[in-house]
Design brief:
Elements: H1 3-16, H2 20-34, H3 47-62, H4 67-83, H5 91-106, H6 112-131
Helix pairs in contact: 1-6, 2-3, 2-5, 4-6, 5-6
The chain binds protoporphyrin IX containing FE.
């Protein structure tokens, strides 16, 4: 990732923070629409899950310029996901739901450059998680 891309992701995420609750709702609604088979993998009550997802994203975004510092945590997250029964293929619909959510949440601020930068972030995280 270039420093410009890190900047784009961090600045755009700042705009998501005030609407984090709505963004998490949008994200899981979208995920369960495009990959309904994932619904049963999550608890019935998604409140805690939504908070954890936004917190993890915030940590990743904050530390993008020093990704190596969070690599061990991302690897552990990847191993836990294997334990939840998550397959490598399932990272694609999750990534698609994330980009869709950002597009809805950010509107015109979700420029092609911002989308490309987020795609890199997600691909990097998913890559570390699946290879862990
Ligand atoms: C970059 C990608 C992802 C991130 C950052 C992420 C983040 C998280 C976090 C922070 C948790 C809380 C539990 C923990 O820390 O172990 C979690 C749990 C979980 N995630 Fe993910 N996740 C990602 C990808 C996926 C994918 C691809 C799936 C596939 C459907 C998935 C399904 C789940 C499930 C089933 C749980 C456990 C729910 C429970 O039993 O409480 N995640 N995820």
């Amino acid at each position: 990732m270039t420093p410009e891309q890190v900047d784009l992701v961090q600045k755009s995420f700042q705009k998501v923070v005030p609407i984090a609750g709505t963004a998490a709702d949008l994200f899981y609604d979208r995920l369960f629409e495009i990959a309904p088979e994932t619904r049963a993998m999550f608890p019935a009550d998604m409140a805690e899950q939504k908070k954890k997802l936004m917190a993890m994203l915030a940590t990743a975004v904050t530390n993008l310029h020093k990704l190596d510092t969070i690599l061990p945590a991302v690897k552990e997250l990847g191993k836990r996901h294997k334990g939840y029964g998550v397959t490598a293929e399932q990272y694609a619909p999750v990534g698609a739901a994330l980009l869709w959510t950002l597009e809805k949440g950010l509107g015109p601020d979700f420029t092609p450059e911002t989308k490309a930068a987020w795609t890199e972030v997600y691909t990097a995280l998913a890559g570390v998680m699946t290879s862990a």
